[in-house]
Structure to design on (448 residues):
């Protein structure tokens, strides 16, 4: 790529740049190279903003090459008019791709602006190179949550009256954020809804009293409870009904945990870590376990083993009803992070899901950067980085991944690959005979 890399000062057209201001090109024409695509323009604009330099972005026109080292200004040596402009530009060609690069237009008489332009161009030109973007191809929501989103949309489409969702899981936030369901209500209790309202039960289910209340009032119910959640709830009731203590394996912070506890609150004992497993007190002949859907299966297996050390006759629900969504997500993120020179987590740093995904990536020893927007990207993040890993969290705006890939494509030819791990469970269906099959897939695109 370096053989096709050019850097120069060009005679600029009239962008109206005044002394002290710079104009970052969203595109410009380089004589002999044609139109130059400036996908990285937002990165340069942010660099100027951080330096306190007034900046705006606009299309820029450029003309003849100014000799490097020639005087710049409106004197006879530069040959520029008093109101002329200079474009500090970098462009490169790669195979059959169009020219890509960046340019900054500065008033010809503005020596400090020119210095700032050269400095910012230096920073970003230093990280120009061919790269691979490896995307952790996992949705921030699980299959049960996506199914719930579809149920919500169908309820809104077909209901004759208002629609209300009990609780606010990820699927509700996603659905409510789309123009198709602007009037979707989220309620905590059914006392908040009027007669004739269609009530949606979310993916994590509802308390038994809530379901009974809906039935007693004759409300129309669209049940979006995840099938794995429904099965886990049934297991809790079944095991408690036969007189067992139910060891609930998982985290109390998961939305579904409260639903599961509600199935038999006097018979459930939470096991969130090894200390809970060691403190568990139960009749050795009457102890069963249920794994909370959404809790990583690998972590659950460690806790189940810890309980079984003390209670060898421990019984539990079948492995084919375990939820592998969290495990697959962690496996995918870890695999991408391990294969990357730098890992970028897209989302709000303060959000729990963003912190969790960052931890997944950090466990591999990868260098991890959290970006809430492309403006957070710095040149030093990409120094010597050939493979860029990226994972999207639930708090990231829907367009952020596309924007991230776009600006990266402005820093060198970019190939995008997606990697995912999917676990499928069943009896006698896997090649290894163990009832579990792993399917890992990687797809590559020449661009974004």
């Amino acid at each position: 790529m370096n053989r096709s890399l050019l850097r120069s000062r060009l005679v600029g057209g009239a962008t109206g740049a005044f002394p002290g201001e710079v104009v970052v090109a969203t595109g410009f024409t380089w004589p002999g190279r044609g139109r130059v695509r400036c996908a990285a323009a937002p990165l340069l604009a942010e660099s100027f903003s951080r330096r306190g330099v007034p900046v705006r972005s606009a299309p820029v026109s450029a003309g003849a090459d100014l000799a490097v080292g020639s005087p710049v200004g409106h004197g006879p040596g530069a040959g520029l008019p008093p109101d002329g402009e200079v474009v500090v530009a970098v462009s490169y060609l790669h195979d059959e791709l169009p020219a890509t690069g960046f340019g900054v237009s500065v008033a010809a008489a503005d020596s400090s602006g020119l210095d700032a332009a050269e400095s910012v161009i230096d920073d970003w030109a230093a990280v120009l190179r061919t790269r691979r973007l490896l995307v952790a191809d996992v949705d921030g929501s699980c299959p049960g949550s996506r199914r719930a989103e579809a149920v919500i949309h169908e309820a809104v489409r077909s209901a004759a009256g208002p629609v209300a969702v009990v609780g606010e899981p990820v699927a509700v936030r996603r659905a409510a954020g789309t123009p198709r369901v602007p009037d979707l209500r989220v309620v905590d209790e059914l006392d908040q809804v009027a007669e004739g309202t269609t009530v949606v039960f979310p993916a994590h289910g509802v308390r038994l009293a809530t379901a009974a209340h809906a039935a007693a009032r004759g409300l129309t119910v669209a049940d979006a409870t995840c099938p794995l959640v429904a099965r886990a709830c049934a297991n809790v009731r079944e095991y408690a009904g036969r007189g067992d203590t139910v060891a609930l394996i998982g985290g109390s912070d998961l939305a579904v945990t409260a639903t599961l506890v509600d199935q038999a609150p006097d018979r459930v004992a939470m096991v969130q870590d090894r200390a809970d497993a060691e403190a568990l007190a139960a009749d050795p002949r009457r102890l069963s376990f249920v794994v909370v859907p959404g809790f990583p299966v690998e972590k659950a297996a460690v806790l189940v083993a810890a309980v079984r050390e003390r209670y060898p006759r421990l019984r539990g629900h079948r492995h084919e009803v375990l939820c592998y969504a969290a495990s697959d997500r962690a496996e995918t993120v870890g695999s991408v992070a391990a294969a990357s020179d730098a890992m970028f987590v897209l989302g709000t740093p303060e959000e729990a899901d963003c912190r969790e995904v960052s931890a997944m990536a950090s466990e591999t020893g990868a260098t991890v950067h959290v970006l809430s927007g492309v403006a957070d990207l710095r040149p030093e993040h990409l120094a010597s980085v050939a493979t860029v890993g990226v994972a999207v969290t639930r708090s990231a705006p829907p367009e952020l991944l596309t924007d991230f890939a776009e600006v990266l494509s402005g820093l060198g030819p970019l190939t995008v690959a997606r990697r995912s791990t999917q676990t499928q469970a069943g009896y006698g269906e896997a090649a290894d005979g163990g009832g579990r099959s792993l399917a890992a897939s990687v797809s590559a695109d020449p661009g974004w």
Remarks:
- The two ends are 20 Å apart (CA to CA).
- The first strand starts at residue 5 and ends at 12.
- The chain has twelve helices and 22 strands.
